[in-house]
Each structure stands twice: as structure tokens, then as C-alpha cells.
Fold this sequence. Notes:
This protein is mainly alpha-helical. Helix content is 49%, strand content 9%. Strands 1-4 form a two-stranded antiparallel ribbon. It has a two-stranded antiparallel ribbon with strand order 2-3. The protein has a two-stranded antiparallel ribbon with strand order 5-6.
Amino acid sequence: MEKQRCDGRTQIVKLGRHQSPVVMLEVGVLQRSVLRPLLFAVYCSPVGDIIRDHGVHYHQYADDTQLHLAMSVDNTAAGLAVLAACTADVRQWYLQNGLQLNPDKLEALVVGTANQLCVIRIISIRRRCGRWLRKVLGVVLDRRLTFHKLVSMVARSCNYHAQAIRHIRHLLTTELAQTLACSLILSRIDYCNSVLHSTLTGTIQKLQRVQNNASRIVLQASRRSHAMPLLHQLHWLPVQQRITYKLAVLTYKVRSKSTPVYLHRRIAERACSQT
């Protein structure tokens, strides 16, 4: 926190005609400071110790904190009790340190197989959460991790931009049309696409059709023309290969640089038995 720059600064909270007393600032971070996200993460770092004391896994990104706990189907009450206690302690720490959690943004998602989800009966979570879809950093998660909803949303957004490019394609050069397709369509297909690894082929084909359509628009080809030569001409990898390539690059960086640490800990060297 920056203390010297806060000398002489005050703070008030105003709501309608009501106003809080004037409070002198002792420490704080200036608005638009590039250090704000880093300092906030440092300030909230003790929350990780509290969560670990409950035996719960967690992941923090800026002001978003995610708790992960594996529960047995036969004893979900114990897992819920641990999560409730952990959440209460985290909320108490924030209150004691000048912060407050927004209960309206508290979300929960139970993930499992179809048989497990049929056995589990968690009335409290059903009432609180309502739907079984959650968005995390733009990625829509469902309770079976099929990612059907995520792919449908990405395809719908990409098709919208593809039609917009089609309408003005006759005014664009091939290079400019390719740039627009990469920035508006392929960027959405590539965003967090590593979560789609090993998903159903039909799910990947939805995105592949979007990419095929984009290649035909860029090269002004017929809608019935084969897409693979067009992708080769544009130097675009198909969707499945793009996913594999991203995972390979990520794995190489984790093994060579050991970052991020939480991924490096999960990678184990595998000896090949064949010669």
C-alpha cells in the first residue's frame, strides 16, 4: 500500500441525501495505478492460509476466489459443512480487514457423472443457485462438464460476426478480411479452448463448421466448397489441432519454466516402456 501519497486525503460514502462522516485515509492505492491488482492480491493473500486450514483447494484470480472440494456421494453433508465453515471464516476475515463479500454473487456448482448427480440431493444448493450453469472468466461450466452451452454460445457469437463480415466482404481486401476473421472469430474459438480437449466429436464439429464458414467468407468461396483446402491456404489449423497445439505449448512452458506452479505440480514424468 502507498502511505505517503495518502497524506491529507479523505474519504466519504454518499447515498442519496445521506453521507457518512469524513474519514482520513491512512493507506490506500491511487486510482488508475498499475499496481492495484498486484497490491490487492498481496493484501488478500492471508485468505489462502484460512482456506488451506479447512483442507479445501482454492484458486484466486484478482477479486475472484474459487473453492474446490471433492465430496463422496454417500456423505455430501460433511463436504457441505466444510465448505460452509470455510466460507464463513473467509467472510469474517474480509469484514475484519475492511472488505465485504457480496452474497448475491456467491455461486455453487456440483460437478459429477450422470449417475452421481442423480444420487445427490442437495436442496440448499438447488434453492440458492437455481440453474446448473456457471460462468468463470467467460467460460460456461455445466454440472457434467459437457461444455455444450459454451460451444453453442461461442458458435452463435462467431456466426454473428461472420455474417457482418460477409456483408462488407466485397469492400475488403483478402488480407483485411483475414485480419477481421482472426480478431473477431478465431479469437473466440481459441479462447480457453483447451478445456474442450477430449470432449465429444460433435461438440468440436460445431466450432469446426464456424471456422469453415469463416474461411469461405474470407476467400469468397462457394458455400458448398470443401473447407480443408481453404484452411490450408489461409494457414489455419482445424479446431481440434488448435486445441492440441495449445495444450502442447502450455505443457512445454510448464515443464521448461515450472510456471504456473499449480500446473507444474500436477505434471509427472512418464517413462516410455517401448524402445
